[in-house]
Amino acid sequence: MSPSHPSILALDTYVLGGLSAAERAQTAQHLKGCEACRARVASIEADKNHFDDAVLPGALPRLRAAAAPRTFTLPRALGLGLALAAGLAALVVWAPRAPAPDGVKGGPAFQVVARHGTQVLPVRGGEHLSPGDALRFVAEPGGRAYLLVVSADASGGVSVYQPYGGAESAPISGARVELPGSIVLDSSKGPERLWALFSDAPIPVSDLRPQLQALAGHPGALREHRMLRAPHASEVTVWFEKGSP
Amino acid sequence: MRGMTATELERLYRTYGALIHARCRRILGDGPAAEDATQETFMRAHRHLATAPSVDEAVPWIYRIATNYCLNALRDRKQRDALGAAIGWDGAQVNEEERLVDAALAKALIDRAPEKLRACAWLYHVDGLTQDEVARVLGISRRSVVSHLATFLDNARKFVARSAP
Questions:
Q1: Confidence class of residue A170 from pLDDT cuts 50, 70 and 90?
Q2: Helices of type H across B82-125
Q3: For A179, how many CA atoms within 13 A lie in the half-sphere containing its CB?
Q4: How many angstroms away from the CA of B165 is the closest CA of chain A?
Q5: Chain B residues 101-160 within an 8 A CB cutoff of chain A
Q6: How far is CA A217 from CA A68, A76, A169, B119, B139, in A?
Q7: Do B25 and A55 touch (CB under 8 A)?
Q8: Do you find a cis peptide bond into A69, omega within 30 degrees of 0?
């Protein structure tokens, strides 16, 4: 870009009403004579309209849910009905990387590994999975010493996947670890959300169970909810929709 | 999230959400990934945005958080889809100095760059920010920006050389 044009950073700031008085005047003067920059400003404003019309209506409920105190009633405790299977072909599904302590750079990462019949399919957040589909997990601890993987689903089930059925986080070491075993989905329907909690000390499942039980059995909350309250843990979460063909 | 009312949170989201979304779309493209990234970025940035003294300070912060988050997400997506092994350009025809001004090539090279260089290279080569602006967004010195960009370019040269038949 020519240094004579304001950068996109400057234009974004300008549109939001920032910049010093002198910079605003300079930018406004530039815009009068620069069709390309006027087009960029128009594009920024179009982005704003698109966001207000198409994104904001869907995003606000999720935001409100995240901000609201969690007041879900305790659901019935149901088993997940998930079974271990072996020999699963690997499909790597990366969940978002957990924030590092500074909240900026990448931290630990967690992969969901899945198989659909003989087909290996990418599964992204909110992906529809079928009964019989199998999942495995791959973790990058990013220097954290322990990992706990827990889940809650729409049928009311709360489960501990790593260590399977365990009471607290298990030690983990290495740059990239394929967790043993796999999980085969049963015929229950609705969303299931997993949380991978990387930490420097073991986290008791009992510390998280009330939060998980409050979410289990509430499909809307499971689709919207992102984070557990797990102090000092780096957290990655991913959800999928069960029971669809 | 504690300490901020839902109303305050919504006000911040209405103010800055579009900018965050635009940043995320620029890196991740349209669709659910950009929308998820928008929310995740906002959740990470909202406390700072609530106390930011001005738009001038908030916008670089948003650039920083969103760029880092989305580049990580992009890298993870690439790893997941196993696309990283094949970059769609012919190394034999590349004059790296010229081609680096090509944002598409820069994106491909950024995918392969070490983490500490990626945001710097993206902001400079793809977004077209000045070195001073990159320094302000990332909270590092201009000298560090110059160094990171030189390292990125050096790595790109080596990669281009290795890719040539």
A1: very high
A2: 96-99, 103-112, 115-121
A3: 29
A4: 31
A5: 115-116, 127-130, 133, 137
A6: 18, 8, 24, 40, 44
A7: no
A8: no
Query: Rounded distance, CA B99 to CA B105, Å?
Result: 7
- In 3D space, the residue among B127, B119, B111 whose CA is nearest the CA of residue B149 turns out to be B119
Q: Is A72 exposed, middle or buried (0-12, 13-18, 19+ CB in 10 A)?
A: middle
Do β-strands A234-242 and A190-199 pair in parallel, antiparallel, or remain unpaired? antiparallel
CB contact under 8 A, B18 and A48: yes
Amino acid letter at A129? L
Residue type, B148: H
Surface of A (198-227) touching B: CB under 8 A: 226-227
A84 bridge partner residues = A183
Residue in chain A nearest B137 by alpha carbon = A9
| Residues facing A112 on adjacent strands | A93, A137
Contact at 8 Å (CB) between A66 and B43? yes
Identify the residue among A1, A2, A5, A13 best suited for mutation to test binding to B, counting B beta carbons within 10 A and taking the highest: A13
The verdict on a CB contact (< 8 Å) between A18 and B6 is no
Q: Look-up: residue for tokens 């234009």? A: A11
Predicted TM-score (pTM) of the model is: 0.52
pLDDT tens column, A53-62: 888 887 887 7
Are the CB atoms for B33 and B80 separated by under 8 Å? no
ipTM above 0.85, yes or no: no
Q: Which residue of A has its CA nearest to B124?
A: A1
> 3-class SS at A134?
strand
